[in-house]
Amino acid sequence: MKSDTNDLETPDVDIRALLDHASSTLPDRDVAAHAWARAYADSTRLRRLIGGAAAASIVGLGATAVWFGVVRRADDLQASPVVSVSSNSSGTPTTPTPASGTDYDMLPRPSAMDTLAPYGLRSTFSGTVNLAASAISFEQVGGFQPGELIEAAFVDATGNEIGVVTSHRRTMWLDTLNAQETSDSNGNRAFSLSIASISADGTMLAIDQPGGVLLVDATQSGVTRPWRMIVIDDPHIEAAAFVGPTTILAGSDTATYRIELADAPGDTDRITSFEPVWDPGPVLVRDSGDPQRPLTIQRWNPTSGSYDPPSQPELPVRSLFGVAATAADRSSVAVLVAAPEQMERAAGAYQAILLVRADGTYRLLGDDGRPTANPANDNRSKGGITPLGFTADGQLLIYAGGSWDPVLDRAQDWPCLVAWNPTTGQLTRVATLQGRALQLVVRAA
Amino acid sequence: MQPAMDQDFGEYARLHQHRLRRAAFLVCGDANLADDLVQQALIKLARHWPRVRSQNPDAYVRRILYHEAVSSWRRNRREQLTMIGQVPDVSTSAAQSRIAGEIDMQSALGRLSPQQRAVIVLRYFEDRTEADTASILGVSVGTVKTQAARALSKLRASIVATAHDNPPSPTISSEPR
């Protein structure tokens, strides 16, 4: 008789006996009392920390914001952001009412997300979605189907298990991929997916790997390993993003690599390198660390094969929290920022999404998931709202998480995908997410 | 002032800690690290004990433990791999774990990925169902099946390789109980 998990035949050695014996030499130790004492000591420290300044709470939350989005490190958190808000936008903000002289929209706190109206348009995601639970085995279904495109990709928080959501409305674990964890040269872990990991036409997915980029090719239908490794002599590749139909930028902390994919099988990919940029992608938004200096925006120029010189639109913020999403036509850029001081004062928001149009005008979406929320889990961590990309009708798709404990729960409270119309300011709920936390990226429209 | 240890928590922890430490040892391969992992898991359980005590503390503490065990291995894997290369097969714990056919289970487990080890330990040391294993590890049942099959295949290869030097050749039983 065969077991339910493997094809090994009738045994003469019992794996249970082997495991039992292998652990039988462990001597007895009582760790219960010490655990209780430590728990009490830790909770005391925690209460003291909560009693501190609100700003300290925000910094503390930053460390937990790593998973459901694209904020890679907490070390970009700067001191309080800047100056006045004088938006030229005219949309109707949602709750709460903005302070006089300011104009911005507000994303409701996590527990109030169900007050948003449904998105109402066709989307890859709709209704209630549990990606991890609904994902099927890529190997078992025999790979991609002809014409199937990659619409979204996600990484499991427990490892480097990578999944995709396709145009055929299939959610699949790429269970034969065997992706490796990446890090910078100091050992800081990085995510396996960048915000532009999926090619604009949905046929390819680029995954940064130690020593190269793993390229998943959805046009290879009917095979269970439709991927190949683009080898780069750099063990610390930690970003890979499409900046053109066949151009990928891969980055480490020592160099940025431009990969021109081979035109035909058998041809060689062309790889050139230039100075390192943090999280290379179609657009770079940077702060200088100096509150007196504005954010800069640089767009990739496919014609020149390099970044255009940085522009410095007059923006109300100086401090950046996360990497940028850009519209396919590069007309708008969205990025997570520290909330402008006036917004923070008036609405209690400590983070916001800043959308900058090609002409330098902007609009802000504040986060009402404040760290001092009551109940305490009705908050969002730094990075708890993340711009994912623009929809075909020009709205910004945003992941809006809730509170979560990566160890105890692994699932967030009230996570949603929302669409923000930067023209009208309207917010709609695209989908409600369920299940354990994942890093999610979507294909740019 | 520190509160006295909750009596129920104390009874629960003392009843289960040795089994948890053995499971952690099988997953991480280091007795001291296993103790640290179990202690960390119990600390978190203690903090949430008022909420968890009436629910399912078994599942709760195991989710913490296995998550930490796998994460810990990921953080320390370079050091562990280096150690394996420098000091092959001579550790006291490894030597103590040899049984029929000179099978070194700890060494064989060391060749699995951390998640594969966790799956094997949950399924065949803790006798958890595939559904329970999936729930504790936060993965799908399909992933559990796949990881278990691959892990058993690797274990078989390790044991067959060992058995070549120490006949007769053993095979692995993984029949569900």
Describe what you observe in this structure.
- Chain A is mainly beta.
- Chain A has helices spanning 15-22, 32-50, 54-62, 131-134, 341-347, and strands at 13-14, 105-107, 117-118, 127-129, 136-137, 150-156, 162-166, 171-173, 182-183, 189-190, 204-209, 212-217, 227-231, 239-244, 247-251, 256-260, 270-274, 283-286, 296-301, 306-307, 320-326, 332-338, 351-357, 362-367, 385-390, 396-400, 416-420, 427-433, 438-442.
- The longest helix of chain A is centred in the first third of the chain and has 19 residues, at 32-50.
- Chain B contains nine helices and three strands, in the order αααααββααααβ.
- A two-stranded antiparallel sheet of chain B has the order 1-2.
- The radius of gyration of chain B is 17 Å and the shape is globular.
- β1 (13-14) of chain A pairs parallel with β3 (172-173) of chain B, so a sheet runs across the interface.
Keyphrases for this structure?
heterodimer, A: 445 residues, mainly beta, five-stranded mixed β-sheet, 5 helices, 29 strands, 31% strand, globular, disordered N terminus, B: 177 residues, mainly alpha, two-stranded antiparallel ribbon, 3% strand
List the topology elements:
The complex is a heterodimer of chains A (about 450) and B (about 180).
Chain A: E1 13-14, H1 15-22, H2 32-50, H3 54-62, E2 105-107, E3 117-118, E4 127-129, H4 131-134, E5 136-137, E6 150-156, E7 162-166, E8 171-173, E9 182-183, E10 189-190, E11 204-209, E12 212-217, E13 227-231, E14 239-244, E15 247-251, E16 256-260, E17 270-274, E18 283-286, E19 296-301, E20 306-307, E21 320-326, E22 332-338, H5 341-347, E23 351-357, E24 362-367, E25 385-390, E26 396-400, E27 416-420, E28 427-433, E29 438-442
Chain B: H1 7-28, H2 31-47, H3 49-52, H4 57-86, H5 92-96, E1 98-99, E2 103-104, H6 105-109, H7 114-125, H8 130-137, H9 141-165, E3 172-173
Antiparallel strand pairs in B: 1-2
Derived structural class of chain A: mainly beta
Amino-to-carboxy terminus distance of chain A: 51 Å
User: Biggest sheet of chain B, in brief?
Assistant: 2 strands, antiparallel
Identify the most extensive interface between protein chains. Answer: A-B, 60 and 77 residues
The amount of helix of chain B comes to over 70%
Number of strands of chain B: 3
Based on CA atoms alone, the radius of gyration of chain B comes out at 17 Å
Radius of gyration of chain A: 23 Å
- Given as residue ranges, the uncertain stretches of chain A (5+ residues, pLDDT < 50) are 1-12, 42-102
Helix content of chain A: 10-25%
Number of helices of chain A: 5
Amount of beta strand of chain A: 25-35%
Low-confidence stretches of chain B: 73-102
- Ends of chain B: how far apart? 48 Å
Determine the oligomeric state from the structure: heterodimer
Spell the H/E element sequence of chain B: HHHHHEEHHHHE
Q: Identify the overall geometry of chain A.
A: globular
